[in-house]
Design goal:
The structure is a single chain. The mean pLDDT is 96. The protein has one domain: Ferritin (Up-down Bundle), CATH 1.20.1260. The protein is 76% helix and 0% strand. By secondary structure, the protein is mainly α. Helix 1 (4-33) runs antiparallel to helix 2, helix 1 runs antiparallel to helix 3 and helix 2 packs parallel to helix 5 (148-158). It has helices at residues 4-33, 37-63, 83-110, 114-144, 148-158, 168-171. The structure holds MU-OXO-diiron (FEO).
Length: 172
């Protein structure tokens, strides 16, 4: 049976993951409006990844006899000044999520919840990848500056991204 405090904290994190999905979906709509379909696709894939993160938490809570109670999701921002501003925002958002995951791990350690520690380690590693992925697009956008040709090429490259959920053994 999952500890009440951990259950509540994970419920809050499910909300944070769904908020992340909502923000990235909004970013995808902004890229659509700017005729940057590759960056929109990148954000659609990111949206699916966040839905997967939320679902993985929910399955864990249910598997340990807890109750998932969904909460209201805040409205996302809808406008940004540039592609670089979008990815800067995405990076700051991922850094915030990393802080949340670290707080969850701190709680698991404090209450000696070994199952949750093991479960949360996947997210600790995932956040390293999340920040790295967003950070590398941001670095490319900074390098590109005002070159519309380079932006077009990067958009094409980012459009190749798709999301497939990790195999069960990689998820552990
Ligand atoms: Fe679910 Fe992007 O962290």
């Amino acid at each position: 049976m999952i500890d009440d405090r951990m259950c509540e904290a994970i419920n809050n994190q499910i909300n944070a993951e769904l908020l992340s999905a909502y923000i990235y979906y909004s970013m995808a709509q902004w890229f659509e409006s700017q005729d940057l379909p590759g960056m929109a696709q990148w954000m659609y894939a990111q949206t699916q990844e966040e839905m997967f993160h939320a679902d993985r938490f929910a399955r864990y809570v249910n598997g340990r006899g807890g109750r998932v109670l969904l909460q209201a999701i805040d409205a996302p921002p809808t406008d940004w000044d540039s592609p670089q501003a979008v990815f800067q925002h995405a990076l700051e958002h991922e850094q915030w999520v990393t802080g949340n995951i670290n707080n969850l791990m701190d709680l698991a350690i404090e209450i000696n919840d070994h199952a949750s520690k093991n479960f949360l380690m996947w997210y600790v590693n995932e956040q390293v990848e999340e920040e790295d992925n967003v950070g590398s697009v941001l670095a490319q956008l900074k390098r590109i500056g005002d070159s519309s040709n380079a932006l077009y090429m990067l958009d094409k490259e980012l459009g190749a991204r798709s999301f497939s959920p990790p195999a069960a053994e990689e998820e552990k």
